[in-house]
From TrEMBL:
Organism in which the protein naturally occurs: Perilla frutescens var. hirtella
GO biological process entries: plant organ development; RNA modification
Residues of the DYW domain: 588-680
Name of a matching Pfam family: DYW_deaminase
Name of the protein: DYW domain-containing protein
Length: 680
């Protein structure tokens, strides 16, 4: 057998020990000293494949005569082991000193190295050489060029290469799709995806293609296309691949198709932590938080070890349902296994603590982080704003600037919300018009909506309306509803009527708008208008979402609805509510019956108000918790005026901190005051 065939076999087997014996034999028999380039190239390849780059380089440097294969073998070794900069330097030396030109095998290696190093200029020089030499028509070269431009964010060049070729292989499409997804260019990604599908050659797809394709469908929430692609994969059998299965689950989750997602998950014969985490994420994204927590129990029974992303998703699910007990157990577990220092887990812990009402704990976690990324800072700023603590939010933002952290789009949403809480109109406009521009951030709908809220809170309602009308962006329901809420709070019913009419045009069946309209008319004692709104709701079959409140007592969640009598202790709870309301009357509490139906006796109105779900939850928590423990209640709707007023008095009467999370924000009640300063 020829020596080079033996060396090739040893390279494939990565048998360095026997390879060195062969090398020694060649030296002893004086075969290596001759100008036999082929054997030396084979030895360089052997050492490179086995990771002994120093021996490969010594042999390479001692060669009196080297050809392109010699250089390519050395470059291949460096590239395989991540020394990409050395590949580029070798190529420069080969061309300038040795006067050798890269071939169709060497040039892709150099281009890949340029991609990984971010050497765009050198890569473009290689592109020019490929055009001049005709190597551009070789598929490996073309794929490497596409990869270069996608990695260097020059997607137009990547698309030009794709479009200019009569036929591209699957690697080209993979590189382009991956780059477009990384850059967030979903429109162009969709066009490339259509090109790929129209070629009608799904049998050429590999796992990477499927992951990219489902990524596009998921981000665009294109369920129809996603189902078509899934159907094709079922025919060619790629759906059995673990990573493809995880990508399919992710796609269905992003498209909101939870049942299809679960079918895919259940149909997978093999599952790993990625598959389980993708399914947990899909549940969490679709606010199926309890299902996510239940699935985690199944994951434990299957002895699948969760990773940091699994815990992050679970902590977010705990935040969604304010499952503080479950969240604390997860906190203890990640601390035990050493994952608490992971930044993804750390951020999730901050979010969970904040959403469960523990803003002080969230800040302690934030301060204890060894490393904080922009998400960490954004979380702390937005969490403080959500809790009504505007000054604290701005303090964190200033600290962020002191530490020279670059603010992001989300950062300024939290900052502008904080300005709104504090009524700092001029400061808010400074951040919007100057600081965001300086940071290279284009203001978006969320920022403009914060400005509407800022002006509304400052009683500058006409300015808020003019701000909306003078900015030619596509305003959504949230922005107009923010203005409507300001009209309700400040009793500007004329403007409120105009805003409500606009809202009903934008979203005719929005129950939130109808409820705000009804309350606004009720406060103005326009009972005929109240009747009109309620008639409109009946005609359009607009259902008001039932109000729910829940509180967690010793890791058990107790859920209440208005006038609830299904709880096992409902009699005692109602007695507690009755006693509390009687006692706070002596402190000045007066039931806020304005928004109740006008054709009902006042005594009946008060009775209805007495047993709203949040009052029942607060009463039960007072019955079951120690006298000095804070009370935490969560609600799925906006807290009503009467419950808000009553809770302020209850906090004063009982000397307890009562934290209520409604659909808009957190309310911290202490000593008869609320953190929202009666604006919510």
């Amino acid at each position: 057998m020829e020596i080079r065939k033996i060396l090739k076999a040893l390279s494939e087997a990565k048998n360095l020990k026997f390879g060195k014996i062969i090398h020694a034999h060649l030296v002893i028999t004086n075969q290596i000293s001759r100008n036999r380039v082929i054997e030396k190239n084979s030895l360089i390849h052997l050492y490179s494949k086995c990771g002994d780059l120093s021996s490969a380089r010594i042999l390479f440097d001692k060669m009196r005569k080297r050809n392109v294969v010699s250089w390519g073998s050395m470059m291949s070794g460096y590239l395989q082991h991540g020394y990409t900069q050395e590949v580029v330097e070798l190529c420069k030396h080969m061309v300038k000193v040795e006067k050798l030109s890269p071939n169709k095998y060497v040039l892709p290696m150099v281009l890949s190295s340029c991609s990984n190093c971010g050497f765009l200029d050198e890569g473009q020089q290689c592109h020019g050489y490929a055009l001049k030499s005709g190597l551009i028509f070789h598929q490996y070269v073309k794929n490497a060029l596409v990869y270069l431009y996608t990695m260097c964010s020059h997607l137009n060049c990547a698309m030009w290469i794709l479009d200019s070729s009569p036929r591209s292989d699957i690697c080209t499409y993979n590189s382009v799709l991956n780059g477009l997804l990384a850059q967030g260019d979903l429109t162009e990604a969709w066009c490339v995806l259509r090109m790929l599908i129209e070629e009608e050659e799904c049998d050429r797809w590999d796992g990477v293609t499927c992951v990219n394709v489902f990524g596009v469908c998921g981000h665009l929430k294109d369920l129809i296309l996603g189902r078509q692609v899934h159907g094709r994969l079922l025919k060619i059998g790629l759906d059995r691949d673990l990573f493809v299965g995880s990508a399919t689950i992710d796609m269905y989750g992003k498209c909101g198709e939870v049942s299809s997602m679960r079918k895919v998950f259940d149909g997978l014969k093999a599952k790993n932590e990625v598959t389980w985490t993708a399914t947990l994420t899909a549940y969490s994204q679709n606010e199926c938080f309890e299902e996510a927590l239940k699935l985690f129990l199944e994951m434990g029974r299957e002895n699948v070890v969760p990773n940091e992303y699994t815990f992050a998703v679970l902590l977010n699910s705990c935040a969604g349902v304010s499952a503080l007990g479950y969240g604390n157990s997860l906190h203890a577990r990640v601390e035990k296994i050493g994952l608490k220092s992971d930044i993804v887990v750390g951020n999730a812990l901050i979010y969970m603590s904040s959403k469960c009402g523990l803003i002080e704990d969230a800040h302690i976690l934030f301060r204890s982080m060894l490393y904080r990324d922009v998400i960490s800072w954004n979380l702390m700023i937005t969490c403080y704003s959500y809790h009504g603590l505007g000054m604290e939010a701005l303090d964190v933002f200033q600290q962020m600037l002191i530490e020279r952290k670059q603010p992001s789009y989300v950062t300024f949403v939290g900052v502008l919300s904080a300005c709104g809480l504090l009524g700092r109109v001029d400061e808010g406009f400074y951040y919007l018009n100057h600081m965001m521009r300086e940071c290279g951030i284009e203001p978006g709908l969320e920022h403009y909506t914060c400005i509407v809220g800022l002006l509304g809170r400052a009683r500058r309602l006409d300015e808020a309306e003019n701000f909306i009308r003078s900015n030619p962006i596509r305003w959504d329901v949230i922005a107009w509803r923010t203005l409507l809420n300001a009209c309700l709070v400040h009793q500007n019913y004329g403007l409120g009527k105009k805003v409500a009419d606009i809202l009903l045009q934008i979203s005719p069946n929005d129950s939130g708008t109808c409820i705000l309209m009804s309350n606004m008319h009720a406060k103005a004692k326009r009972w005929d208008k109240v009747s009109e709104v309620r008639k409109l709701m009946r005609e359009r079959n607009i259902k008001k979402e039932p109000g729910l409140s829940w509180t967690e007592i010793r890791n058990d969640t107790h859920v209440f609805v208005a006038d609830d009598n299904k709880h096992v202790e409902s009699v005692q709870i109602r007695e507690k509510v009755k006693k509390l309301l009687a006692e706070i009357r002596t402190l000045g509490y007066v039931p806020y019956i304005v928004t109740e139906l006008h054709d009902v006796e006042e005594e009946q109105k008060e009775d209805w108000l007495s047993y709203h779900s949040e009052k029942l939850a607060i009463a039960y928590a007072l019955m079951k918790t120690p006298p000095d423990a804070p009370i935490r209640v969560m609600k799925n709707l906006r807290m009503c005026d009467d419950c808000h007023s009553a809770t302020k008095y209850i906090s004063k009467l009982t000397n307890r901190t009562i934290i209520v999370r409604d659909v808009n924000r957190f309310h911290h009640f202490r000593d008869g005051f609320c953190s929202c300063t009666d604006y919510w």
